[in-house]
Amino acid sequence: MAATLLKILLFPAYFSTDFDVHRNWLSITKLLPIDQWYLENTSEWTLDYPPFFAYFEWFLSRFVPGFVARDGCIELVAKGQFGIPTIFFQRFTVIASEIVLFAALQYYVTSSSNLKEKKRNFVVASSIVLSPGLFIVDHIHFQYNGFLLGILVLSIVNAKLGNYLQCGFWFAVLLCFKHIFLYIAPCFFVFLLSVYCLNTQSKLPTTFSELINCVRWKNLIKLGSTVIAVFLVAFGPFAYYGQLSNVFQRLFPFARGLTHAYWAPNIWAVYSLIDRVLIQLTLRVPGAARIISLVFNKIDYERLNNAGTLTRGLVGDVEFFILPNIKPNHTFLLTLFYQLLSLVPLLINPTFERFIGSMTLCAWASFLFGWHVHEKAILLVIIPFSFLVPFDRKLLPLYETLTASGYVSLFPLLFGSAEWLLKTLLTFVWFVIFSNSFNEVCEFSSSISRRVFILDRLNILYIVGLIPVCCVLQMIDIQSRNFAILKRFEFVNLIVYSAYCSIGVIGSWNMFSWLYFLDDSIWDRRIKEKEKTL
Amino acid sequence: MARSKFVSLFKSSPLYDFLIPFQRAQNQWVARYIIIVFAIIVRCAVGLGPYSGQASPPMYGDFEAQRHWMEITKHLPMKEWYFYDLQYWGLDYPPLTAFHSWILGELGSLTDYSWFALDLSRGIETNDLKSYMRITVLVSELMVYIPAVLMYTRWMGRNYNKASPIDQTIIAAAIIYQPSLIVIDHGHFQYNCVMLGLSLLAVVNLLEDNYALASIFFVLSLSFKQMALYYAPIFFFYLLSVCVWPVSRFNPLRLISIGVSVVVTFALMFLPFIYQGGFSQVVQIIVRVFPFDRGIFEDKVANFWCATNVVIKYKNIFTQSQLKNISLLLTLAGIAPSCIAIFLKPTKSLLTWCLSSCSLAFYLFSFQVHEKSILLPLMPITLLLNEVDSDVISMVCWIANISLFSMWPLLKRDNLALQYFVLGILSNWLMGNLSWVRMFLRKAKIPVTVRELATPVLPHNLFWKLVIIGSYSAASLLHFLDYYQEPPAHLPHIWIIANMVLSFGCFSLFWLWTNYKIVQKATQKLKAN
After folding, report:
1. Of A98, A296, A379, A446, which is most buried by a Cβ count within 10 Å?
2. Neighbours of B517 (CB within 10 A)
3. Using the 8-state DSSP alphabet, how is residue A215 labeled?
């Protein structure tokens, strides 16, 4: 088993060699002194990841071979002029950096205590390694997610093994690589606090001294100093040069719109879809306008008439015409609310299963309600979830729905006709393999009665429905060159993708929350065993 | 003949590790679909790479030729197909290719008319067109070649080597992931898979004793690409001999039915042309399809003529027609052993062996051979992976690698170097030929698990061990020199020629070996009787 995992190393080496989108930060870190990194803006693609990532790029740029550099890999220009050597080099760095992920997962597999668990962990590990999401995003679209998720896995494994200090360390490192992991930072914070720094066994403190004893000060100091040290290493140099404000401006650009250029399949996608439908209704259907204006008071007809032109163009900045507009702090509050909700049980009973569960929920909440969410963020939900699935059979249908809709929602990232077959088949074969093997290794739950069978059927129907959706949309895309009328649907295509996928993502989120809050047997092994003996 | 218990010879391969979880009866369809889908994925990924003649006006390459045929067959009446502007990639494959192109051209025009607009579309190179063409190859392969391979291994599993269904799937996967065919069809761009698949279907039907069907499939294959003639002698003698032997039960009905099906299929292929343009059409097709006025070899190819040409300059000694006759004689001599064997002993276990030997003899000795023609002998050779003999397996893996190597100059010209290396490594790794790397890692104290090798990479015979190791090291040396060392000025093609001579040596040794095996198997059978 362990051997097979190692062999998988060769696997992505194959696919990733194909060429596609490519970005260029190497030059900034290579050519400029450190205090200029976050100021440079010759190119549109400014450095907007945290410092460790910048260091990482700097490290990579040391290894640019001569013939690649001559190819124009590290020229600091507005738009990169480069050829095949550069593409090869960059793709190679992705593969090489992914070794971190393999190593972390290997660690996870070897850390398992018995053979049954090992088999289960192996399925989890290989499902992550072979994930079509990683293929699409990392190896074709081009990013370094595999490497970063490797660090995440490392900290998860350490949490499982009880090395809480290392868990905190790795997560802090991860945060300094890519700040998108802030989505799941709350659950790490609460988990480590509760399991490492507090005495949860003791009763509620009644006196002040008990309150103080409740906290394990030694552990708190150890953990705190580790995390602070990591951040110091990361941001120290920039603080020294007085660049901190620039760094933070780059990291948190609130100026961007509510939804990303391709709509991520979240609440806001559905929200905007409803808005669009309402617009069409008011404009086309007589009488509908009256009903709508009863609900939403006023309709600005002048804006509405311009709406047709506004919607089709860039979606970067979405305006709502009928439904109330959304501000960043609305999304922030919603996200926070749902995250806090998931953190409460974790604080009370910090088991490993709950920790992963709340991590999934945190990521999910931010994905669904966050401001300017990228659809790639779905990986952040799927990866922790895959660690969770083998614990209980009840989670499997949810997982299937989530992965199917999540990975399909990544499809619009690759719009070329050449990759269409590749991405669909990869997702399809992955899905078939792993729904089979998860089915085999999942632990049966004792309380099967709580499963609602009609929902299972709906799940399957939904997943099967993805296939015709993909095919029809692609057909429309192909035929749009012949029939001018279909050209108008270009944007509708994307809407359909994200709307259909968001049904899946939101639906499985609901079910997951239900299980998380109401079904204790999944989250605590002791309860589960108790139920089994009954 | 059949062993009582089949031991999978791919037991230690990664392929086995991947597919063995699906060995339960209800899961076996999953394994089959996984290898097919994964085969498509690999082919798609190769298809993202460049094709032959990309961005090289004015003539471009094979890709443009195929596209051009779709263009002319879509727009012109049938009688002009073989006459239209012959200087620019005139149609020079038999009728079935023309019909195939016609259908694809019609379908493609539904999507985008400009792809196949007459004359205007010459040299068109858009990404969407490329994807369309790639998909047509993929679909053709999926419809013909892959089912044929699965049928073949299934028959073998049931009647010959008694492999369990999961082992059959593993063997089929090993055949489907043969790198040379993938890189030529999906990288360089050709439709060889259709011709090979049709021939393979004919073989399967022979095994099932459907003689008329077999001959129909074989004629279809011939009328897709005339290169299928490499297999023709074996088919001919096998069919003849099953009708003739034993003399006491001479079967004229069978002979007639075979003959009728051959003639009718050919007639169906040519009738539309005769109907539209008279008999001169047939003459023109034959002239186009068999261009005997070209030289004895065109490019550098690892056959007898080109390899010995290094020493003996044939063109200075003999005239063109003399050369033709000599090559005809040599080819006849080359195919004689296998033809005689199959004629005297028409057994099913000999069939694949004789096909390999005969087509390899054609490749080595016949006139006007192209380096891509190695795919023809390679197809039956890879089918030999069904044999229950680890020596055979290692020989087959070796020759598959050498044939990939022999196409290196061509692939390098097409900028397919990356795909060449990746596919080579992928297929060898899948078949477990790279397991020795792990042993070295183990020796270097790197903790990796090593299992008992069921398939040794090298055969048991010392001579073959030396040959295989020697050829591999020579091949790697050549790659190394090719990359780091400019060829000397007065010998600009030295690396290509070395490649060719080396491959020729390996091929001819392998050819001798197949003949030896054929004789061995045929006489074994006699003794047993």
Report:
1. A379
2. 20
3. B
Whether residue A229 lies within 8 A of chain B, CB to CB, comes out as no
Residue span of the structural domain in which A314 resides: 267-325
Closest Cα of chain B to A410: distance in Å? 18
Residues 235-294 of A with CB under 8 A from B: none
User: Nearest-CA neighbor of A192 among A219, A173, A225, A231?
Assistant: A219
Residues A10 and A51 in one domain: yes
pLDDT in tens, B107-124: 888 877 788 877 777 777
User: Which residues, other chains included, contact A377 with Cβ-Cβ below 8 Å and sequence gap of 6+?
Assistant: A180, A183, A264, A363, A366, A367, A370
Q: Where are the domains of chain B?
A: 14-55+125-528
Query: Do A115 and A171 lie in a common domain?
Result: yes
Same domain, A35 and A61: yes
Cα A390–A385–A334 angle (5° rounding)? 145
User: What are the pLDDT digits (tens) for A366-404?
Assistant: 888 887 777 778 888 888 888 888 877 778 888 888 888
Q: Are residues A140 and A48 in the same domain?
A: yes
Distance CA A354, CA B124 (A): 58
Question: Which pLDDT score, from 0 to 100, does residue A116 have?
Answer: 79
A204, pLDDT greater than 70 = no
Q: Which residue has the tokens 């429905």?
A: A465
Nearest to A148 by CA among A140, A139, A157, A138: A138
Q: How far, in Å, CA of A360 to CA of A378, rounded?
A: 10
Number of structural domains found in chain A: 3
SS3 label, residue B117: coil
Q: Which residues of A touch B44 (CB under 8 A)?
A: 418, 421-422, 425
Rounded distance between C-alpha atoms, residue B370 and residue B376, angstroms? 11
| Global pTM value | 0.82
Closest-approach residue (CA) in chain B for A480:
B111
Write the secondary structure of B26-95 as one string of H (helix), E (strand) and C (coil): HHHHHHHHHHHHHHHHHHHHHHCCCCCCCCCCCCCCHHHHHHHHHHHHHHCCHHHCCCCCCCCCCCCCCH
A264: its two tokens: 């991520």
In a domain, residue A218? The reply is yes
Q: Compare all CA atoms of chain A with the CA of B138 and give the residue at the minimum distance.
A: A421
Query: What does the alpha-carbon distance between residue A163 and residue A149 come to, in Å, rounded to a whole number?
Result: 19
The verdict on A219 and A355 lying in the same domain is yes
**A122 and A15 co-located in one domain:** yes
**Residue A129: its chain B contacts at CB < 8 A?**
none
**CA–CA gap between residue B503 and residue B398 (Å, rounded):** 11
A173 and A91 in a common domain: yes
Neighbours of B485 (CB within 10 A): 10
pLDDT given for residue B98 in this prediction: 87
Question: Which tens digit of pLDDT belongs to each residue from B219-250?
Answer: 999 989 888 888 989 999 998 888 887 777 77
User: Domain check: are A302 and A409 in the same one?
Assistant: no
Residue A260 lies in a domain: no
Is the Cβ of A429 closer than 8 Å to some Cβ of chain B? yes
Test mutation, B17, B19, B20, B37, chain A, max A CBs within 10 A: B37
Q: Which of A7, A426, A433 sits opposite B14 (nearest CB)?
A: A7
CA distance B470 to B483: 20
SS3 readout for A236-252: HHHHHCCCHHHHHHHHC
Is residue A85 included in any domain, yes or no?
yes
**CA separation for the pair A121, A26 (Å, rounded):** 36
B378-424: pLDDT as tens digits: 999 998 888 777 778 888 888 888 999 988 888 888 878 778 888 88
What is the arithmetic mean of pLDDT over B355-373?
86
For residue A239, being part of any structural domain is answered with no
Q: Among residues 455-514 of chain A, which lie with CB inside 8 Å of chain B?
A: 478-479, 481-482
Q: Is A417 on the interface with B (CB under 8 A)?
A: yes
